[in-house]
Write a structure and sequence with these properties.
It is built from 17 helices and ten strands. With about 650 residues, the protein is of the alpha/beta class. Strand 7 (about 180-185), helix 7 (about 195-205) and strand 8 form a beta-alpha-beta unit. Helix 1 (about 25-45) crosses helix 2 (about 60-70), helix 11 runs antiparallel to helix 15 (about 560-585) and helix 14 (about 495-550) packs antiparallel against helix 15.
């Protein structure tokens, strides 16, 4: 690649959206900027490993006040701005300028900013935003808008279209932001596309255009709002507690914003680690949440994104250059270019930049997934050995003097303690492996959709029943596809179809067939060993049972005890080992899942051979099936309990 990929390019961004009133008085701006600065400081403090993207349409008033703070010296290298546009730029600028009517003793018309002054201010912001260094974040994100049709309308019809476009861009900002900053007077009258409407949509998840929720039983995509109580120029009465910052949560919950959380002291820190230990040990996905859990779940999603980014940063410190995530990502981009899926860097448009962003972040997630799978596997053998030792404590007392009994009991307690310690670390590694794998597989589908010119975000295509368990995964995928906007649907040509079929469908078919055969052989070998030890232990147990009845051999001798241990105890211990390994490996369930996935890809391949079928619908349907299967696999493994047979 001509440009070296930056470590931040591989990370998952935290998206901050902006909405607010346009008629904000000049005397209020300084105080509001201080509060916005406090919010930015807090977010950067809490999520210090995470790049921040600010979505602001740069309308008059609130949008520009927040953008101004983001562009000042303190934040300009830490926050990247992207501007969603409700119209084409020329039409948008005709809506600039703010004049308000204030009712009092006399009707007063106040000019907050002229149209010319507003356009100059907007151009100044765009110039500064254009100078940001971020390859994969476009300066402008145009919404779907037909200017030719708009120009044919009369003034009243144009007004209705403008309100719809304001609602559309507001929805876009709300649904794609992790945190929505709202400069709002909650007592003001709401209108279509206004601040109150956008805040309500963010809190309720009831969207109309981008991800319609009408007549839809799916769980709504809700989120949190940081509301700054903001006076308006046209207000007749003084706003109580103006400039106060309040965190709003879905379900009419709210808490006052505090700039920084206290750092836990040593004892508190140790307590948190103990709680974390048991949380990981006992955690299980659950849709029903308490009020506190519901409020903290948003912070948890943001925290997990920050943890992913921290892992990316830490892995880049390894000494082997060939294994660095940046090097692997660059090689991946070169591979896609050689396949003809992407063009040379100099020719990338905004869609191709998004595709490359997905490719390199998928490579980072897949690399982390492999690392934590290896870490997980490295703990499997010690855990299995501990399981064998715990089972052996039931047989060893028969071949040792009674004086050793207390030591055997102590060793059993020690084995159990070690087992739980290893298990907690195993579960942490397993959770990280499964989460990063889920992100990688979700991005695989997103990349395939981008190749197929499907503009939808995979984050909005997960089955409703999986949304709670896959919360932060979907949040991550939504953050990586904030530029997947509604646009006119294009068709793929035959040459593009060949590329998609070759590099997605055929590669996946080959992958599933290869792994089904490999895992089937492993399962067959594992089943043979388990059956052998089952029959061996049953047979010799029967023989020794007969001896206890007919007393052929003196059972009090040490040789009898040793023989019994080797003929019954050893097979039972090895049986425990292989049964536990079977639970860890889950070959049967994995094979069944792979077979189902293979059937879907083979059916898609057959359907695409018929030219009368709509290839876009097939690719979309296949992607949704692939997401559902991957989600099912992730949830299944999360809920699976690994336990020692002796516990």
């Amino acid at each position: 690649m001509s440009k070296t990929i930056n470590i931040n390019d591989l990370k998952i961004p935290l998206i901050i959206g902006v909405t607010g009133h346009r008629d904000i008085a000049e005397e209020d701006k300084e105080k509001l900027e201080e509060k916005i600065s406090d919010i930015f400081e807090y977010i950067l403090y809490k999520y210090k490993n995470t790049p921040i993207i600010l979505l602001t349409p740069l309308a008059d008033g609130a949008d520009r006040i927040v953008a101004k703070v983001a562009l000042n010296e303190k934040f300009r290298d830490k926050i990247t701005i992207s501007v969603p546009l409700p119209f084409d730029e020329q039409t948008y600028q005709t809506t600039f300028g703010v004049t308000v009517k204030k009712e009092g003793k006399y009707l007063e018309e106040l000019v907050v900013i002229t149209q010319e002054g507003s356009i100059n201010e907007y151009d100044s912001f765009i110039d500064r935003i254009d100078n940001q260094i971020n390859t994969f974040v476009p300066t402008k994100i145009p919404m779907l808008f037909d200017k030719d049709e708009y120009d044919k309308l009369d003034e009243e019809e144009k007004k209705a279209v403008r309100y719809k476009q304001y609602s559309l861009v507001g929805e876009y900002v709300a649904i794609h932001s992790h945190i929505l900053i709202a400069l709002q007077n909650p007592c003001s009258e709401g209108k279509n596309g206004g601040t109150a409407e956008i805040v309500n949509k963010k809190l309720s998840g009831e969207y109309e255009y981008i991800n319609t929720t009408r007549e839809n039983v799916n769980i709504p995509e809700r989120g949190i709002v940081y509301r700054i109580l903001t006076p308006r120029k046209k207000d007749e009465h003084e706003l109580v507690n103006k400039y106060q910052v309040i965190k709003l949560f879905p379900g009419n919950k709210q808490v006052e914003f505090k700039n920084k959380d206290e750092e836990p002291k040593f004892l508190k820190s140790m307590l948190y680690k103990v709680i974390d230990f048991y949380t990981h040990l006992l955690s299980k996905p659950c849709i029903t949440k308490t009020e506190i859990e519901s409020m903290n779940s948003f912070r948890l999603e943001h925290y997990r994104i920050n943890c992913f980014n921290k892992l990316v940063k830490e892995h880049e410190k390894i000494e082997e250059p060939k294994k660095k995530i940046i090097k692997l990502s660059e090689d991946n981009v070169v591979s896609y270019r050689e396949k003809g899926i992407i063009s040379d860097e100099c020719c990338w448009d905004s869609d191709e930049k998004l595709l490359v962003k997905n490719i390199i972040t998928r490579r980072a997630a897949a690399t982390l997934s492999n690392i934590y799978q290896n870490k997980m596997n490295s703990l499997e053998l010690p855990i299995l050995i501990l399981i064998m030792l715990s089972v052996s404590t039931f047989f060893i007392p028969d071949i040792l003097p009674e004086s050793f009994d207390k030591y055997i009991k102590l060793s059993y307690i020690f084995i159990i303690a070690l087992f739980y310690i290893f298990y907690v670390y195993f579960k942490k590694y397993k959770d990280t492996y499964e989460d990063t794998r889920a992100i990688s597989e979700g991005l695989r589908v997103q990349i395939a959709w981008k190749m197929s010119k499907i503009n939808d975000s995979v984050a909005l295509s997960y089955p409703s029943s999986h949304k709670d368990q896959m919360g932060w995964i979907r949040t991550t995928l939504r953050a990586l596809n904030i530029f997947s906007i509604p646009k006119k649907q294009l068709k793929v040509n035959n040459k593009e179809k060949e590329k998609i079929n070759k590099h997605w469908i055929n590669e996946q078919i080959e992958y599933f067939e290869k792994n089904i055969n490999k895992l089937s052989m492993k399962k067959k070998s594992q089943d043979k060993k388990i059956n052998f030890f089952i029959y061996t232990s049953i047979f010799f147990s029967f023989i020794f049972s007969l001896n206890s009845i007919f007393s052929y051999i003196d059972s009090s001798s040490i040789w009898f005890s040793l023989t019994k241990f080797f003929l019954i105890g050893v097979p039972v211990i090895l049986l425990a080992y292989f049964k536990a390994k079977q639970a860890f490996d889950s070959y049967g369930k994995t094979i069944a899942q792979y077979e189902l996935s293979l059937a879907h890809f083979q059916r898609a391949k057959n359907l695409l051979q018929d030219e009368n079928n709509d290839s876009m619908k097939i690719y979309k349907s296949l992607g949704i099936e692939a997401l559902g299967e991957n989600t099912f696999w992730t949830i299944l493994r999360r809920e699976k309990q690994y336990k020692s047979p002796s516990l």
